[in-house]
Amino acid sequence: MSNLNTAAGADRLHIGFFGCRNAGKSSLVNAVTGQPMSVVSDVKGTTTDPVTKSMELLPLGPVVIIDTPGFDDSGALGDLRVLRSRRLINRVDIAVLAVDHTVGLSAYDEELLKLFQEKKIPALIALTKCDNGEVAREAVPGLAGFAGFAGLAGSDASGQNAAGTPAIDYASASEKQPSIPVICVSAETGYHLTEFKELLGHIRPEENPLRLVGDLIAPGDTVVLVCPIDASAPKGRLILPQVKAIRDILDAGAVCLTCRETELQRTLDALKEPPRLVITDSQALGVVAPIVPADVPLTTFSILMARYKGFLECAIRGIAAATALPDQARILMAEGCTHHRQCEDIGTVKIPKMLQALCGKTFCFETSSGQGFPEDLSGYDLIIHCGACMLNDREVRFRMTCAEDQGIPFTNYGITLARCTGTLKRTLEIFPELAALLPED
Question: How far apart, in whole angstroms, are the C-alpha atoms of residue 425 and residue 225?
């Protein structure tokens, strides 16, 4: 099981705190994390940029807490802050709507609830600043239609029911509102803070049913991982897809052998029986593919990650459309993280050079990194995304959906490299129904 120190950011559940300015978001975040991670004041708009903090929240496990700017901010800078908050909704697995109980539910809060519902994000409403304890439902403007919340209707003095769980009713105000729990809380006095964290910890977003590689192998199988160590490899560690593959192989009861491409032939020769599967970094395909016997399945970390993140079929259709692009087509090279680019950078140098050589055309390449992915993709003819190992599943699916909704082909770095080296069909043989989507050369 992952813990706070070992879980990668992409594998942690992301919990976002949203609401209007001065609704008590930052105070509540500080109280939940037990640290002053956000600056707090009575001045509206104190939080101007998203603030994140990793913590352990049982029984959910490792999570990332995100404090966001007020959704009702105004002015030129305020509009940009609201846009950032709106984009953050696409990253979160659980949403907390902070509502000052003395102000009540505003039109901005209603808009946020609608967005949570549209994006199928489980959420709860925290009625903040309840420093004197219980608050009557009717006293909170806009909340009269909700059936109940912690502190009332079946709760004891601690805000729990007889079963020891937070006493929350899950009714909605109207058809416009999602079924959502509501809880009174005070960051100042600690009222219902424990119950709030208990409630938050028991909200279960939809889990990814897929495994990276474990469902493709059986106990006792041998899997060989090819991990190049070159100038672009991080010093002293493996990259996340390689680490995830090792763990998943071990969880499946299989044997994992790891080597560089320069030691692959020797590794295969030392085995008494052929391996069940060889997984390689996409950049080494040109060297690895000729070494691996034709009867030994071969695939890449990138293909497995695309399947795990839920966009492999989309990526295959995207690369199939790439070779039909017109001259001077605009291509967005999108990356989920930021890094120092070297002279042979994969996204800005290697792939553009190889793709143009494959197609015999000149393309116009643009780049985005981190959270700078544009929602309006209408000016592009193709999106080539990185492996997205540092993005959570929800963010990756959002980016894919943005492209699909606008009719823009969407693929990734590894699949593009495999197509350019003529090895894509080979690396998709373990998924024959997907390999069939590729056009004949």
Answer: 19
Burial 385-416 (b: 16+ CB within 10 A, else e): bbbbbbbbbbbbbbbbebbeeeebbbbbbbbb
- Region of 33 please: left (phi>0), alpha (psi -120 to 50) or beta: alpha
Yes or no: say if 408 and 383 are a contact pair by the CB < 8 Å rule: yes
CA atoms of 141 and 412, how far apart (whole Å): 48
Averaged pLDDT score across all residues of the chain: 82
Highest-confidence segment of 85-94, 387-396, 417-426? 417-426
What tens digit of pLDDT does each residue of 15-45 get? 999 999 899 999 999 999 887 655 555 545 4
**Model-level pTM?**
0.72
And the tokens for 344? 């042979």
One-letter-per-residue 3-state SS of the chain: CCCCCCCCHHHCEEEEEEECCCCCHHHHHHHHHCCCCCCCCCCCCCCCCCEEEEEEECCCEEEEEEECCCCCCCHHHHHHHHHHHHHHCCCCCEEEEEEECCCCCCHHHHHHHHHHHHCCCCEEEEEECCCCCCCCHHHCCCCCCCCCCECCCCCCCCCECCCCCECCCCCCCCCCCCCCCEEECCCCCCCCHHHHHHHHHCCCCCCCCCCCCHHHCCCCCEEEEECCCCCCCCCCCCCHHHHHHHHHHHHCCCEEEEECHHHHHHHHHHCCCCCCEEEECHHHHHHHHHHCCCCCCEEEHHHHHHHHHCCHHHHHHHHHHHCCCCCCCEEEEECCCCCCCCCCCHHHHHHHHHHHHHHCCCCEEEEECCCCCCCCCCCCCEEEECCCCCCCHHHHHHHHHHHHHCCCCEEEHHHHHHHHCCCHHHHCCCCHHHHCCCCCC
Is a pLDDT exceeding 90 seen at residue 208? no
Q: How far apart are CA 325 and CA 318, in angstroms?
A: 11
pLDDT at site 173: 33
Structure tokens at 191: 């009222």
pLDDT (tens digit per residue) in 87-98? 788 888 899 999
Give the C-alpha separation, 148 to 167, whole Å: 9
**Cross-strand pairs, 65:** 15, 53
Structure tokens at 39: 């600056």
Q: How many other CB atoms are found less than 10 A from the CB of residue 428?
A: 23
Residues belonging to the chain: 441
